Amino acid sequence: MSNEENETSIEDLKKSLSDRDATIKDLQTQFDAVKGKADQLLDETKKAKAKARDDEAIANQALKDRAKKNGDFEQLLQSSEKERQALSEQLGTLQNRVSSEKTRSESLRLASELADGTNAELLSEFISKRLKYTEDGLKVLDDNGNLTVSSLQDLKHEFESSGKFQSLIRGSKSSGGGAVGDGNGVAGKAKIERSNFDGMNPTQQMEFIRDGGEITD
User: Fold this and answer.
1) pTM of the model as a whole
2) Where do the domains of the chain lie?
3) Please, which pLDDT band fits residue 82 given cuts at 50, 70 and 90?
4) Contact 122, 200 (CB under 8 A)
5) From 174's CA, which of 57, 72, 125, 168 has a CA 20 to 30 Å away?
């Protein structure tokens, strides 16, 4: 082989090596680019997962905070309702006490205008059953417990003129032995119907019997 041919072969070999190096370099560049993209995607994936965990943690905490807040509100609401019920019961008790005192006071006042001593106390028990305290004051009830338009003076007159309680009314019988009875019993002896006697408390019943009272059916 001539020197010229040898030189040509060497040049071709150099060119071939140069092309190979260029190809390798190009492949390395492509590899580096792909690897860089893969690393970027991996990093973004990690960041996305981390953000997802953070978002989930924030959401869970928000749910816990909301549940706690709702629980506190529910507890506060229940506490407020219990307090309202307690105040309502106290108010009801106070109103009942006022009603009872007003009714008792007025029934005693009316009874004292009609009778004396034990008779007045006994009569006041029956009068009180015909009274009811309302926001508009004391009202008169009928025998069935229904409100009426009658006044307190009307009720007083009703008891005063009723034969049912005549033995308790002042001046309806004499204090002496010559008193005239009602034709159904001993003169001067108090008489009440069984239903009225049953309406007395035990002390009043004992006093009535002790004083010689008579019960009629």
Assistant:
1) 0.45
2) 1-161, 173-217
3) confident
4) yes
5) 125
